[in-house]
Design a protein that fits this description.
six-stranded mixed β-sheet; L-amino peptidase D-ALA esterase/amidase; single chain; eight-stranded mixed β-sheet; about 30% helix; binds adenosine-5'-triphosphate; alpha/beta; translocase
Length: about 475
């Protein structure tokens, strides 16, 4: 275990690191974050003893590092420095072998089996055996970086201090290196402190993070306690947005540009929709921020093409994703820029309406096939046939994440109310239907103009969505019923 208490130090009269305290238990990895010049490397130098501290303590398992001899300390602690000016005249194997120096004794050091095994293991872990006899200066920056990490690993110390270990590495080698280091920490009970410039990598791999600001600890804790928008923005002086990692409970940030997106003169208009026998199509000049439960590109994203495609009643293709992607490509659209839904009802039965407001307008488009309507409170009791109400809400305005979700809720409530009003029943239970079995909803916004933080019924936007979806759904049901009667 490594314990740092009130560590203070710097260069000459210049105090860089000011009263830093923390502990890292065995088997854990602490990531150091902070902007350029905040004192990260200086702190590492103080911890490793390369730079004497002005005050404070660094203890390894309860013993101050000042009590260790140089070789004894090197057996406990391996350091990957930020710059590797040394050793460029050596081969890869020779460079990695230098990591074994604390384990050599006497003037005529004897190279043991243990030394050989440690070097071989380090070469293997960093996947650099193939360069074993290559002079280091003939390797790429990323390959060299792996050699220096191998040198630190060959030292077989229980504490690893790494200054930007992923420097120069491509994304796969970043992952491989950090996976290896993390695995080593767990399997060999290593204590690891590592400096990171990449906040997202640090969040993904570290158990604890320390955010350094002008030599002070601004925040320390688990990644979710440290990777917070306001703190990161203040310390790094950059606009960021925080979002969840898709697979791990580790927050990630996205850098936001200082330069604004050029404003588009065009807005979403109902008359710009086109309706053919194949599809209802809306093509936007600018990408719209979209949240949907579509077939293609469901979830959140930015898209310019919106398709509600007509398919036969008996459309039943196992891989509808591939089939729909092909359909989009064959029509000259880009699947990466398109949200696509399907409906069995005729596209001419779509209802598209524009609702003006004080902030801009909302365009709503609904197709409603209610032959297989469902009372959702009884859905679990029996199998369901396919049926679809597709609801699109396109907003000329800038929605918050909250507003996107509220818009979905408001739209769903309005749809259900319309079914109730029209007396649409679940054919299997005879009770009032709440929707159909495969309804889709889409909310998209220009993200320009008025900022719309909410979209519940209490807001103007929510009110428009509520009455708009209600009206459109009622009219769409009427068209559907009329067509069925004929
Ligand atoms: N050898 C030195 N002598 C005098 N001042 C130094 C020395 N090394 C670093 N400094 C100063 O100490 C401050 C902190 O530097 P340090 O290298 O610790 O920052 P850092 O957080 O690691 O930055 P970076 O992200 O750029 O690597 C800087 O203002 C730097 O100019």
């Amino acid at each position: 275990m490594l314990k740092i208490t009130e560590l203070t130090g710097g260069y000459g009269d210049k105090t860089i690191v000011k009263g830093v305290s923390f502990e890292v238990p065995k088997g854990k990895m602490l990531g150091i974050l902070g902007p350029n010049g905040s004192g990260k490397s200086t702190m590492m130098k103080l911890i490793s003893g390369v730079l004497p501290a002005k005050s404070g303590m660094v203890e390894i398992e309860g013993r101050a590092i000042s009590e260790f001899g140089a070789k004894e300390l090197a057996k406990k602690m391996a350091v990957l420095p930020q710059l590797h000016a040394h050793a460029f005249a050596h081969t890869v194997r020779e460079t990695v072998s230098l990591g074994r120096y604390p384990h050599q004794s006497g003037w005529f050091a004897s190279w043991s089996h243990e030394d050989e095994a440690a070097v071989a293991e380090a070469l293997r872990l960093m996947d650099i055996q193939q360069y074993e006899h290559t002079p280091i200066d003939q390797l790429s920056g990323g390959e060299q970086q792996r050699v220096f990490v191998a040198q630190a690993l060959a030292q077989n110390a229980k504490i690893l201090l790494l200054d930007e270990p992923t420097n120069h590495l491509d994304i796969n080698h970043q992952r491989e290196l950090l996976d290896t280091i993390k695995r080593q920490a767990i399997e060999k009970d290593l204590t690891i402190i590592s400096i990171f410039h990449d906040i997202n990598l640090a969040s993904m791999y570290c158990d604890q993070l320390l955010l350094l600001d002008k030599g002070h600890v601004m925040r320390i804790g688990e990644p979710h306690e440290v990777v917070r928008e306001q703190d990161i923005e203040r310390v790094y002086q950059a606009r960021v947005s925080n979002h969840p990692h898709p697979e791990l409970p580790k927050p990630q940030i996205t850098l936001l540009p200082g330069v604004e997106r050029p404003r588009s003169a065009s807005a979403i208009r109902a008359e710009d929709f086109s309706i053919s026998a194949e599809m209802v199509l809306y093509e936007s000049d600018v990408p719209l921020k979209t949240v949907s439960s579509a077939v293609i590109n469901a979830g959140a994203g930015w898209y310019r093409t919106f398709i509600n495609r007509h398919v036969d009643m008996d459309y039943n293709i196992d891989d509808s994703l591939s089939e729909m992607t092909r359909f989009i490509e064959e029509r000259g659209f880009k699947p990466t820029d398109t949200v696509g839904m399907m409906t069995a009802i005729k596209t001419e039965h779509v209802i598209i309406k524009e609702f003006p407001s004080s902030f801009g307008s909302v365009v709503i488009a609904v197709t409603a096939g209610v032959g297989n309507a469902v009372d959702v409170s009884k859905a679990i009791e029996r199998p369901l046939g396919v049926g679809t109400i597709n609801t699109w809400i396109l907003v000329n305005g800038a929605l918050s994440d909250e507003a996107f979700i509220q818009a979905m809720i408001t739209a769903t409530e309005a749809k259900t109310k319309a079914l109730h009003q029209e007396g649409v029943k679940d054919p299997l239970t005879g009770t009032i239907a709440t929707g159909t079995s495969t309804d889709s909803c889409l909310v998209a916004a220009t993200q320009q103009g008025a900022i719309l933080p909410y979209a519940g019924p209490i807001t103007e936007l929510g009110g428009l969505i509520g009455s708009g979806v209600y009206q459109c759904t009622i009219e769409a049901i009427a068209l559907y019923r009329k067509a069925k009667m004929q």
